[in-house]
Structure formats: structure tokens, C-alpha cells
Amino acid sequence: MHVMITGAAGFIGAGLALRLLERGDRVTGIDNLNDYYDVSLKEARLARLTSSDQFDFIKTDISDQGGMQSLFSKNRFDAVVNLAAQAGVRYSIENPAAYIDANLVGFGHILEGCRDSGVRHLVYASSSSVYGSNTKLPFSEKDNVDHPISLYAASKKANELMAHAYAHLYGMPTTGLRFFTVYGPWGRPDMALFKFTRGILQDEPIPVFNRGEMVRDFTYVDDIVEGVVRVIDQPAERSDGANDPDRSTSAPWRIYNIGNSHRVPLMDYIQALEKALGKQAELDLLPMQDGDVRATEADLTALESDFGYRPKMKLEEGIQRFVDWYRSYYKA
Q1: Residues 66-90: pLDDT tens digits?
Q2: How many CA atoms lie within 13 A of 114 on its CB side?
Q3: pLDDT of residue 88
């Protein structure tokens, strides 16, 4: 199978590419290597992939229409996994234009490329952020997600709607995955576990929003990758409705939560990190930030039923693996 992964130098993208290469797939990786965070970390992720003769890397931006048209015209992909996006809820408040370009314009180019070249399955990253300020836990794909509270969340909801239009109009199989707080080795420096680890090791206060009164469904990156691989291999199909009454559409379009299905208080997360580091954190207790949510938890009923997905990593072991990687990578 020939799979294109956008955001291939990213946290999840690089892990997914490695897994697909290990099972014998051909992978074309796309990334613009922007400086939203340390580019050397992205390059180090890519270095783990470029030794394979089954991996090709192309530096380009999905918001570049001409570049994407050329890419799709020169290649035939069996599947495309779109992980390229401007990430981060808080940054979307500071720089909304970056989210319009990457998450909306760029995603439109992905849809067009897949349609024009007959890609058999488009899998793309959505986010648990689409649930907004919903308070009923766990979050279900059947819940209303019409009230996002950040532009990032709105852009991911828009991706789901855009994908449905293409699935309906052109019969193009699309599957969206709502990721829940991914963590693990090679993670992003703007994410909580990375920030907390760096702060604790440098004897600096760590920022704890809503004074620690938050709950998250933390999901280890290897569990995420396993779920994505399973989804790639099983394209969405049309439904006639009568035999599949739970589907909201007859189009070959699906949306799934992908998480750990276990809510963890933020303070428990910090305590597990303190244990892994053997060092206590100094907490800077801050108010809730705009665009953030108090609690998340994934209902995995649909993903388990359709793909047999069950996350395996225990939180304490996952945090320890991150700490071991961080100490090794940064010589800390």
C-alpha cells in the first residue's frame, strides 16, 4: 500500500510513518517544517524514517494549491492520512490566520487532490476540542458539536463537514478521528507533559490552569497509531440507512473518537510525572484559559465495535516512557 502522510515530521505523523514502514508499506511524507516549535525536533523525527528506501519526504505546505496539485498528479496514493494542521487551542487565539490557511484552505486542497486522483480512503485528524463546553461524559460521536469555543475546534468541525460533502457528492470514503490528548515520546514542546517535565527539571514553576481542576482523557501515542492503522485498512462504506440505523448519513463518511476512555484529574497526571522524575513540581496555579475545556473523556464504543480498538498503555508507564525519552534526547 502507498500511503501519503501529511504532517509526517509531527508527533503522530512520524510515529505513524514508522509503523507503516515496519509493516512493509510505502510512505510519502509531507511537511512544511514550520517553526511553530523547534524545527530540529521535527528533523530528528524524520531522521528515523529517511533510512528506509520505502520512505520519500517532500517539503511542501498543504496550503500551497499548486504544490498539492503537482504532488497528486505525479503520485498514486492508495490512502491519505491528513495530520498536517496548525495545532493548539491557545495559539488559535493569538494567530487565527494560521488556522484558516492550514486547517481550512489546506484541507480543501487535500480533499481536491484525493478526489481528482481517486484515492481509496482519506483519513484525517479531528479533535476532542469539537465537543466544546459539553459537560456530559464520556463524549460520544452522537453528541451535538455545534458550539466550538476556539477557532481550532471550529476548524476541526469544519473539516468533518467538508469531508462529508465530498463523501456525499463524489462517493469518496473519508474517516475523521477525534484525537483525545495524545502524549508520549517525541511529543510536541507546547503540550502539557513536555512543559511540565522541562519546568520541573529546571526548577521552574509549571503553569497549571483552572488551578488544577481539570480532567483529561490522556492517550498514549502508540495506542493512537494502532487505531489509525486499523482505520486506514478499512475504508468507510455507503450505508442504506435501513440496515444501519445508527448512521446519520448514507455517505461513505465516518467519525470516531480515539482516546483512552479513562478520565484522569490533572493533578493525578502531575503526581505521576513527579514520581517518574523523582522530583516535586512547583505549581503556578492559574485561572482557566479562554478556549480551554474542563473535562474530556472518549466513548470508544464505535471504534471498538468497528475496528476492535482497545488502548493498552497505562498512564504511569506511558509517562515513564516519555520521561526516559526526554532525559535521553535532551541529556537532562
Answers
A1: 999 999 999 999 999 999 998 877 7
A2: 32
A3: 75
Task: For the chain, count helices (H), then strands (E).
Answer: 12, 13
Q: Which three cell numbers stand for residue 83?
A: 495530520
Of 217, 199, 220, 326, whose CA–CA distance to 261 is shortest?
Answer: 217
Whole-number Å distance between alpha carbons of 103 and 107? 6
Residue 332 and residue 326: Cα distance in Å, rounded?
7
Give the integer Cα–Cα distance in Å for 162 and 261: 27
- 149 within 8 A of 133, measured Cβ to Cβ: yes
> Cβ(4)–Cβ(80) under 8 Å?
yes
Q: Which of 124, 207, 217 is nearest to 164 (CA)?
A: 124
d(CA 303, CA 182) in angstroms, rounded, equals: 17
Q: Cβ contacts of residue 161 below 8 Å, gap of 6+?
A: none
Cα-only R_g, the chain? 19
- Please work out, in degrees rounded to the nearest 5, the angle formed at the alpha carbon of residue 119 by the alpha carbons of 116 and 122: 110
Is the CA virtual torsion 184, 185, 188, 191 positive or negative? positive
247: confidence class by pLDDT, cuts 50, 70, 90: low
Q: Which residues are catalytic?
A: 152
DSSP 101: I
Would the pLDDT of 244 be above 80? no
The DSSP secondary structure of 217-270, one letter per residue, reads --EEHHHHHHHHHHHHTS------SSS-TT-S-SSSEEEEEES-S--EEHHHHH
Cα-to-chain-centroid distance, residue 156: 11
Would you say residue 58 has pLDDT above 60? Answer: yes
Could you give the percent of the chain with pLDDT greater than 90? 89
